[in-house]
Predict the structure of Ribonuclease.
Amino acid sequence: MRLVPKMILGVDEAGRGPLAGPVAIGVIAVPETFLIAREFPMLADSKLLSPLARARLFKLMRARMRVGDIQFCVRFTSARRIDKWGLTRAVRNTVSRGVRALAPDPSDVRIFLDGLLTAPEEYDQQTIVGGDEAVPAIALASIAAKVTRDRFMVRMAKLFPHYGFEIHKGYGTKAHRLALKKYGPSAIHRMSFLRS
């Protein structure tokens, strides 16, 4: 009979495709007995939620973390490292850092990852395409990653005001591409993406 509940980790990313800014990996850890869907009734994939709904869920996540119900973290890999390593290696490294931060011991941990993400091989894991819509732990990780990265890009907009990061968060919109033509790349642009 297990005395300590098994931990469930959900992992998702934000910022795979932008021309600027980091890739963000969100990781959430909950006991297997914690009913995420009941405690977060408005939960959905972060891409399907309005910015206000995401902010409300993120605030609730922080409140639940303060009382010890859940744990979560978001880890970034910079544009410079993405350029140096390539996106696949950068994402894999960032997933590893996030998972090990919340579950340094792989025993009694089950990880659910979205899309093509993988955790270090010693962890019990399952990758699910569309997992952010199907698995509540992945959906929470998605919100943590998206909200944290978006807020970072809003801060970056103050340092690099010509690009409109507060609006498009680094994605390759028409306005962003026009700003790149006019001003050239900033220190947080992914040069390898601009050459593609």
